[in-house]
Amino acid sequence: MARAGGNKGMPHLFSGLIASGLAAVVLFAGRTVAVHLEHTTVPSTAPELFRLKNQRLAFQRAAVRAPNVLPLYGTSELITPSIPERASLFFRSAPTGFQVSPVGGAGANLLVMLQKVGALGSDLRGKKLVISLSPGWFLKVKSGQKGYEANFSPMGASKMIFDTALNFELKRDIASRMLKCPSTLEGRPLLRFAVRRLASGGWLDRIVFWALWPAGKLQNILLALQDHFTALNYIRDQIKPAPRPHPQVLDWSELIAKASETRSPDAGNVKKALTFDAPVVWGSRDTAFRSKMNASPGWKDLELLLRTLARLHTRALILSMPISGNFYDHAGISRSAREDYYTKLRALVQRYHFPLVEFEGHDEDPAFVIRHESHLTAKGWMYYNRALDDFFHGRMPRS
Questions:
Q1: Which residues on neighbouring strands pair with residue 129, listed in sequence order?
Q2: Looking at residue 78, what DSSP letter applies?
Q3: For residue range 235-245, what is the model confidence (pLDDT) as tens digits?
Q4: Is 53 in a helix, a strand, or coil?
């Protein structure tokens, strides 16, 4: 009777194995189709900036792998409306042979960027990408927690933490920064536990972390499958026809001159932004400015990002919008104090041997950024575009 019961159970086991095998084949086939479409539709998706692309990895990875696409990671300057000179729009039809793929959102900061870059891992080896810096990140003692929460990518963080592209010491330092905003880890027990073990850094915590590693890799596999199928649905429902390539010979001097004549969409608020209740003595607030700048956590986050880029052997260009000097002059902060920002930025980036264009020469150019915010005007974007074009084609980027 026991033998009969065992034989009776064999067909059920065999059926279960067949069902599992068929499910695996269907998932593999679906993933293959999704990946193929992600790559073939890059000309349509690369210039666009949408939440799925910003929060997940499929479209970012497809852009990185495309030979004629330059990824640009930044913050709210990437979504400033009514500026056709914005890089993603300007290079949409690949006038000089490539498109720009923006990734970022309002409030995004360096800690968000480094998680996304770290999540792409070995796909970035030898690849070009651009990081756009906002001076505001380095002029405040407190980091933008709300912006970090709004742009945090659970998938990106999990992929970075459980991938092997970054070494343990770098992950430990990143994890310590992530714990400064614990709300992003709520409801994600595996990720939260792993980040805490990494941040601790003790030998016992290392052992526990590596014991968790298989579970983390399995979680990443499931997240990646979900990502690909979500991307497949987006391509099916939202994809637009790719813009036709329109090769041109660009006269950058003429383009910059024309953009300089374009009125900023916020020009009417410039005088209002520079109005204070009482006159402020020029240079009277230099000490407070330097104190806040030197204490800003943005410098630590930038160094973590540069370490990540270097570890992944990425060919990165660092762009920094200039400080809006006219505003800071009126606020009692001298050019000498602002020069400390540019000096410190150059020293840090040069330590990791990445090219940097900080546009310091436009510090007091009121037509380069919108008010005191880190939003580029048409003129500012055109200078950015020239630097992007130089970098993609292997020339030294100009400021």
A1: 316
A2: G
A3: 988 888 877 88
A4: helix
Contact 305, 114 (CB under 8 A): yes
Beta-bridge mates of residue 392: none
State residue 316 phi and psi, 5-degree precision.
-110, 145
Q: Which residue, chain included where needed, has tokens 């193929």? A: 36
Residues in the chain: 399
Provide the 8-state DSSP code for 126: T
Question: In this predicted structure, what is the pLDDT of residue 249?
Answer: 87
The per-residue DSSP string of 260-328 comes to: HTSPPTTGGGHHHHT--SS---TTTTHHHHHHHHHH-THHHHHHHHHHHHHHTT-EEEEEEPPP-HHHH
The tokens of 304 are what?
A: 């973590």
The two structure tokens encoding residue 242: 């790719």
What's the token pair of residue 196?
Answer: 């805490």
Query: Is 205 within 8 Å of 220 (Cβ atoms)?
Result: no
Distance between first and last Cα of the chain: 86
The domains of the chain are located at 41-392
Q: Which helix (DSSP H) or strand (DSSP E) does residue 99 occupy?
A: strand 99-104
Can you tell me which residue has the tokens 């990946």? 35
CA distances from 225 to 30, 123, 151 (A): 9, 18, 21
Burial class (CB in 10 A: 0-12, 13-18, 19+), 382: buried
Using CA atoms, how far apart are residues 160 and 155, in angstroms rounded to an integer?
9
Could you tell me which residue, 58 or 79, shows the higher pLDDT? 58
Residue type, 355: P
Alpha-carbon distance values, 21 to 16, 140, 226 (Å): 8, 55, 19
For 76-107, how does the pLDDT look when each residue is reduced to its tens digit (9 = 90+)?
Answer: 899 877 788 999 999 999 999 999 999 998 88
- Sequence-distant contacts of 248-254: CB under 8 A, at least 24 apart: 248/95, 248/96, 250/95, 250/96, 250/389, 252/382, 252/386, 252/389
